[in-house]
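The freezer alarm interrupted the setup, so I double-checked each line after restarting. Inputs confirmed:
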Amino acid sequence: MLLKLLELVGAFVMRRLEEFGTIVLLYRDTMRELGHRPRPRHILSQMSHLGVDSLLIVSLTLLFTGVVFTLQTADILIKFGAQGTIGGIISIAIGRELGPVLVGVVCAGRVGSAITAEISTMKVTEQIDALRVMAVNPVNYLIVPRMLACMIVVPILTVFGDVIGVLGGWVIAVYYSGISSYLYMNSIHTFVEVFDLTGGVIKAIFFGNVIAVLGCYYGLHSPDGAEGVGKATTRTVVSSIIAIFILNAILTFILY
Amino acid sequence: MIRLVDVCKSFGDKEVLHHINLTIEDGETLAIIGGSGSGKSTLLRLLIGLIRPTSGEIWIGDTEISRLSEAELDKVRLHMGMVFQYSALFDSMTVGDNVAFGLREHTDMPEKEVQRIVEEKLNLVGLENVAHRMPNELSGGMKKRVSLARAIAFEPEIVFYDEPSSGLDPIMTEKIDELISHTQQALNVTSVVVTHDMASACRIADRIAMVYEGELIAVDTVENFKNIRDERVQAFFHTLRTVKEA
Ligand SMILES: Nc1ncnc2c1ncn2[C@@H]1O[C@H](COP(=O)(O)OP(=O)(O)OP(=O)(O)O)[C@@H](O)[C@H]1O
Ligand SMILES: [Mg+2]
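Predicted 3D structure, all chains:
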């Protein structure tokens, strides 16, 4: 009984490790192909396709995050006479953590799943084989443009989301909690450093990497058949979100 | 010349092809027949290097491809074209871009010339005014033809067909068969056609090879093939006769 359990756990761990290894290999291949034969048009079309699609949901997510964050903190801070810190606190929280992580999670859902759906459909319908038969490297043709697009788009969305989030905070601070706009802005000036923003952007670049490589990996290794596409996209979203949270903790540890 | 020497292929511990020996001459049309799941597609995928044999050698001309790197394989693949079982057209591109794909990827040909070749190849497969359409607007038979146009756009020396007429009506099947013969004559290519349609095989092929549960049980010219006294082969012919009598 116990032995059986151990066996099951062992097999599970082995499978995960194997999967992780394959992902690392795919990542390595992608990095190797990065310089080969750049395809600027593909990168741009991926950027617009993936970026524009996520703009609205990123805005909404960060707007309401800024709103509730201020609602929760403003009262207490005012009670302690620290209204002059609200803008700074919100900006740092959003710039360092909430911005990149939430944008990462949103993109995992929106961008990662789109990548997986597209690639796994191509796999199921033998389009990837067709690429290979026509002597075109699928990593170069499909994955590199998506990887670069994600590495550019996710940070841009993060900066954008940061601004929206801080703006959401400002609206509540000024129109609900009665803090002056000057005070809010001034506290941002006083407390926030450039690195609060750039650190978050660095995180976002890593998250972009994770989303692209996992999106592509699960697309390329989707189970056969039409329902395989659905399964693969779910896997991408779940694994990307987990990977983003773990990576975020590590990056916070290193960066700040 | 294509030569398979003692090729075996297993997926996991399941052996799908056992010790295949086969030679395909330049300019010849070989039909590979066999039942569902007998390993025909696997054989074709081995020949074009999409999968690698577990053991044995695969020679395309004087290159042994089974141990080449993917980049080296790409050089060999420039001389091969493939028509997939379900066409495998790139559904994000127009028909014209599909056919032009190889030319744009591998040559610096001016756009005008590319367009000319696209037009020419589409005409060759009997299609006109479809270059601007998307693949999902086409019928199955048209897709197959576009797929063939794409496969021959780069002037390959060898063309592989995986069930080119499966899922098509008998008239379209005959048209596709004609197209295969026509392509063979027009471009003098070596053709390898996987099919489970005996009638098709007889129409287009110089020789027929039969795969049965992963083994190559017979390879011979169409005439001789009919006289092979193997009940597995005869069973296949029998289906043909019953169809004709009906
Ligand atoms: N990638 C794979 N992994 C595992 N098994 C496979 C794989 N590809 C093929 N097989 C197995 O190999 C056997 C032969 O498959 P193959 O596709 O070559 O058959 P086929 O002769 O083309 O059949 P059909 O006429 O139905 O297309 C089947 O039993 C199939 O399950
Ligand atoms: Mg098949």
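Quick read of the result. Chain B has one domain: 28-37+69-242.
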